[in-house]
What does this fold into?
Amino acid sequence: MQSSAPSSIPPSPTRLYAPTARSKSWCVISIVSHVSVAHWSQVQRYDCIYLHYTSAEDYRNEVDLLRCSPDFQANSDTWFDCVNINLDPAVLDFARILYLFCCRLPGPEKREEDVALVRLFKPARWKPKTFWENCRVLEDGRTMFMLPKYFIRGAHLINAFGAPREDTTFYLNDVVDSDWFIRAGN
It folds into this structure.
């Protein structure tokens, strides 16, 4: 659902404006296509999303560029970024963005909705031998469709080396910048 943008953000027809439930700030989302299509289909896939958020450090508007590309480079590299999502305001929830779609819904108004296929992370049962304060260990969970308006900001997760399943177990890197340090409760 589109509404008017805050005065500090210039309006653009390719952006959705939605308030985040965790804070009183606005979350601005715009999706950029790297695929040229000669004609419009009912569902179109996108490779990246510009996620606009308000920093918890100094309350400035910031932007995260998040990618989800199964064919990122010529040598078949993949790139699936992680994001902090708003499922429960009291908990930090995370997901890996697998695909982004724009769906044209049938009907006289020809409404368009942005949808993301994400893999949620859940708290891991495995704990490292050296467990520190605010250590968050996550592992792959279920896959689901979600509206991008519930994305809060990008997240940096690090493989948990030494875990029984290193490829699906991760640590949250909460010192990647000052905003994450504050968001993670440090």
About this structure: The radius of gyration is 17 Å.
